[in-house]
Amino acid sequence: MILIDAVYVNTGGGKALLQELLSCLGGKGKFTLLCDARLEGVDTAGYEVIIISPREITRRDFYRRHRHALTRVFCFGNVPPPFRLEAEVAVYFHNVLLCSGFKNATLREEISGIFKLAYIRWRRKNADVFLVQTRLVKSALERDLGADVRISELPFYSARRAHLAPSEEAEGKWLRYAYVSNGYPHKNHTRLLAAWEMLAKAKIYPELHLTLYGEWGGLYEQIKKAQAAGARITNHGFTDSRRLYETCGYQIYPSQIESFGLGLVEAAEAGCAVIASDLPYVHAAIVPFRVFDPRASESIYQAVVATHGKSASPSKIVAINEIGRLVHWLAAASNIKGQMRCEVLINKAGPLN
User: Fold this and answer.
1) How many Å separate Cα 313 from the centre of its chain?
2) Which residues have a Cβ under 8 Å from the Cβ of 174 and sit 6 or more positions away?
């Protein structure tokens, strides 16, 4: 059994990357997806799907019952298997906020992160390799897990599969700024909205297009306050980000920390000029058109003033998409057991270059 363990993945960028992996693996062998009932909206056709509750005790029971049938395991949600397996195991670590060098938004999240990281550290020997998207995450994880753990950069993201039919440039697109993200505190909506209120007070009226959905009462109130001051802000809720990007000339991205910044890549692929935080994760993913200090609403305000109504070239992607390396490792186990060992996930030289 080739297992993709996605028990702890059900929303956001992790869900998008899981869908990309499943799409790329389609037709290349027989794979089993382990997940919980919260994973919705993912195309799992062609996969054996096993649903369990998202608890470690239930996950441990699954591995105990199937341990001798497993030939290769890819844990998609940060956490290694609960014990050592005969099969090779790769763990995709994609939540830098769990690392000790980064602060969560609330005390509850901070304490939860400490316990989660402690558990990952305890189980680290159950993985042959941890995979991360960027050097930033690799360095943070090395500090927490120790030098004896194998950690490899293997960035991947959803490649643009097909272009829409050519059309005239959307009228007024250089007056529109999109931020496709939900309201988690590190996403920094509060300072972004404050900047838009400052713009309205200065009688500058760019459009801000947001995608907030769920329980973010304070942000919804802040949007109403800014709108009352004249700011042009539209919250689309959960929507097709690709379509939204294609109507906007700019993406504005004030997030303070990301494990990768998938939204940056998606916006660049859609033809947006990206205005973003002047932070390492941004420069590791794309070449921004302009940067600002995400700690200061004034800096965001100045970046918008400098670009408002002016055309710009789309930002370029600099992150290399290495999903082929991961697909090859998983698919190889479907053909000849042990043929392609985990070194293909670590060494750049090889059949996938």
Assistant:
1) 24
2) 249, 250, 307, 308, 309, 310, 311, 312
Q: Closest Cα to residue 92, out of 9, 2, 183, 215?
A: 9
CATH second-level architecture of 173-317? 3-Layer(aba) Sandwich (3.40)
Q: Tens digits of per-residue pLDDT, 308-331?
A: 999 999 999 999 999 999 999 999
Which residues are CB-neighbours of 200 under 8 A, at least 6 positions away? 226, 229, 230, 231, 232
CATH hierarchy code of domain 2-159+321-346: 3.40.50.2000
Domain ranges, ordered by start, for the chain: 2-159+321-346, 173-317
pLDDT tens column, 76-94: 989 999 999 999 999 999 9
- Here the tokens at position 305 are 């003033």
Q: Could you give the CA distance from residue 267 to residue 294 in angstroms, rounded to a whole number? A: 19
Nearest to 87 by CA among 331, 347, 333, 336: 333
